[in-house]
Design a protein that fits this description.
alpha+beta, three-stranded antiparallel sheet, two-stranded antiparallel sheet, 3 helices, 5 strands, elongated
């Protein structure tokens, strides 16, 4: 003999429960849409920020590798003895960028010193006008001197300094200002200092 328990419900109770649950589902769909609308912009902003910072790190690695590869031509004397020293250097630099970045966005500077103790690398920055200038320690753009790159690879046994500069323009708001300043630009520097081999 079976006895109905107090919490058991008949057919009418099941219908009422189904209607109650279905109304809850319909009512919660609007809340889910609202939560998604609030969270989605923040999530997408963080996603784009992570992707751009990752791109900056990848770019720095690519430019560093290209600088090392091009500097080797000077160190071994292959560039100096090629007949077109600067052309060979720039060709190696551009080829090492793996067609990901344009050579027009790269600034190269090659200088020579008599000894390692004489090596002097001037500080540079991007001013408010977006120009690459020598860093004079102030924020007055009117007194800035434009950075002039040169190409002096030196001969056998000389101390050579290869400097490669790539300017990154941020597109993600706030992150660009935090990492690149008010103009949302950041310069990626790679400097290679070495003594040329006795190739002569």
């Amino acid at each position: 003999m079976f006895r109905r328990l107090p919490f058991q419900m008949g057919p009418w109770g099941l219908q009422i429960l189904r209607r109650f649950l279905s109304s809850k589902r319909r009512g919660s769909s609007g809340a889910v849409a609202l939560e998604y609308a609030l969270i989605a912009p923040v999530f997408l902003y963080l996603l784009f920020g992570i992707l751009e910072v990752s791109s900056v790190l990848f770019t720095a690695a690519v430019v560093d590798g290209a600088a090392q590869s091009a500097a080797r031509l000077i160190r071994t004397g292959a560039a100096q003895t090629s007949g077109d020293s600067e052309g060979a250097f720039l060709t190696e630099m551009c080829d090492s960028l793996t067609n990901v970045y344009s050579c027009d966005d790269i600034t190269t500077d090659v200088t020579t010193f008599a000894s390692f103790s004489a090596v002097s690398i001037p500080a540079i920055k991007i001013n408010g006008n977006g120009d690459l200038v020598y860093d004079d320690g102030d924020n007055d753009d009117d007194n800035d001197v434009l950075y002039t790159a040169s190409y002096t690879p030196g001969g056998a046994g000389d101390i050579s300094v290869v400097r490669v500069i790539y300017t990154w323009d941020f597109v993600t708001p706030l992150i660009g200002e935090l990492m690149g300043g008010a103009d949302s630009q950041m310069s990626l520097y790679t400097t290679v200092v070495f003594r040329n081999e006795p190739y002569e």
